[in-house]
Amino acid sequence: MINYQSTTDIEWAELRVTAPAESEELVSSCLSNFAANGVEIRDCQTLIKSETPDHILIVGYFPKQDSPQKQKQLQAALSDQEGTSHIDWTDRIQVHSLESEDWSTAWQRHFYPIDLTDRITVCPSWERTLPDGDRIVIEIDPGMAFGTGEHETTRLCAQAIERYLRPGDSVLDIGAGTALLSIIAERLGASSVTAIDNDPDAARSARENLIKNSTERVETLHIDLEKFDSRQHFDMVVGNLQTHIIRDNWRSISSFFSDRSVGIFSGILIEHESQLVPLIQQQGFQVIESSRLNEWLLIVVKKDAESLSPA
Question: Which positions ≥6 away from 251 have C-beta within 8 Å?
Answer without folding.
Answer: 283
